[in-house]
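fold description:
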Amino acid sequence: MKFNNFNLNKNLEDGLEMMGFVDATPIQQQSIPIILSGDDLIACAQTGTGKTAAFVLPILSLISSKKQNNKVKALIIAPTRELAKQIDMQIEGFSYFTNSSSYPIYGGGTGPEFENQKQALVKGTDIIICTPGRLMAHLKFDYFDTKHIDYLILDEADRMLDMGFYDDIIKIAKKIPESRQTLLFSATMPKKIRKLAENILKNPKSISLAISKPASGIKQTAYLVHDEQKVQLIKEIFIKKNKEKPLSHVLIFASSIKSVKEIKKTLNRSGFKSSDMHSELNQEQRESTIRDFKNKKIKILVATDILSRGIDIKGIELVINYEVPHDAEDYVHRIGRTARADKTGEAITFINSNQVSNFMDIEKLIENTVPKINLPNNFSNGPKYVIFQKKKKKKKYWNKKKN
């Protein structure tokens, strides 16, 4: 289906044609007509499917058809400032043809930045893109008039709930008129998302796109390795690969900030200059790090899952999972940072003895067996690829002595 079949606002439609947008993706084909019809929507679709345009385009079209006023009309909530900024950039591109305005609101900034955010809320910006925590900070005061909000969109709702924002989202939803249209987009659909949907959506339509398998251009391998061997193994991999072709764009995922800092420190000591990305960095540091990594000023970046979704960085050659992600879907998101735009890439995962079962779940999801590579000759043996089962304790029986 083509974009000119949706009956979008004429200026927006002409703009899409000028920008070279012709064919809609599956999530766009299914979502846009539902949103234009005014129904609430719960959609399961992963990053990289075109879901941002799936809700931005119809919302822009609907806003353009309404009487203009200096009030906030749409509220988009995203889990991280990086995703909020990325959504805002897309809106800026599309809204150029509709004269609609948008403003991103997120934490980590200075006093003047908070004041600028306040002015965007007070004077009225058509679309506000925000993180839950920072919006809650503004809602503590009485200057944000939420009575004119017609659209509430939750993007990557599962990630927001994983970050502990369930209560904040419920509080925000209660501040917005019940007559609003609510859209919920999530990469996965666990019970807690269903519970959230029941509380804030009204008779929603549902869309579920099966999670995409990893791109065919990704070479996937894994090592069975003990935790104390992992940092040394990274160094060995880098040495070997740099002999073949110098690495220029590597992303290492670790699940904790402590691990991220430890890996970065060890690599720098070994002569592999690297940087880190995690939630303890302030906004300026995070923006600078992402910018330098995109421009390849930083060749090796060690990060938490903050970069596993919603960030489009082209040209990453190698992704290393320092440990197996707990959720199988997160594995797909992580390694999906490489081999983008039809290019090739490589993904290596480290599996310890306690993570074998989780990795088997991943192989089941992607319907593929990932080759297990032998450790270098100078390493002691790693764990076996078998599910660890606890031994059952034998029950003890004895006769109680009578008094």
Summary: Residues 39 and 204 are 6 Å apart (CA to CA). Residues 389-403 have pLDDT under 50 and may be disordered.
